[in-house]
Amino acid sequence: DCYTHTYSLIQADTINYVSCIQIFRNSETSYELISSGAYFAYVKHPFDKIPAKDVARQLAEKENILCLPGSFFGPGQEQFLRLAFANATVEELSLLPKRLRSSVDSITFA
Questions:
Q1: Nearest in space to 82 (alpha carbons), one of 50, 46, 40
Q2: For a FRET experiment, which of 5, 15, 24, 33 has its CA 20 to 30 Å from that of 46?
């Protein structure tokens, strides 16, 4: 029924939201969680001299992480990335800390 389907979607969103917060609280990723909504996380990346667009591109190419550069959201956002997790499973989210840690060595100034 409609109620059960809606409840399942809300429950899944809540699980992803909590999982995302726990990823940044409980793992040493060098990325800082700035804010989190029901479907996304806004994080500060650790690459001071690399534009957010280049960080996002390299995360996709090297670590299989798809995100948007903070610069897409306005000036002064070069240190930030937006990660969406609405369609990610808990299992997929559990891979994120390892990939973020790996990115510290794999991302280079292009």
A1: 40
A2: 15
Q: Model pTM?
A: 0.80
Rounded distance, CA 8 to CA 28, Å?
A: 31
By C-alpha distance, which of 100, 80, 91 is closest to 40?
A: 80
Q: Which amino acid is at 19?
A: S
CA dist., res. 11 & res. 38, Å (int): 11
Give residue-wise pLDDT tens across range 63-108.
Answer: 999 999 999 999 999 999 999 887 777 788 788 889 999 999 999 9
Residue from 84, 80, 61 nearest 71 by CA: 80
Residue 67: how many other CB atoms lie within 10 Å: 21
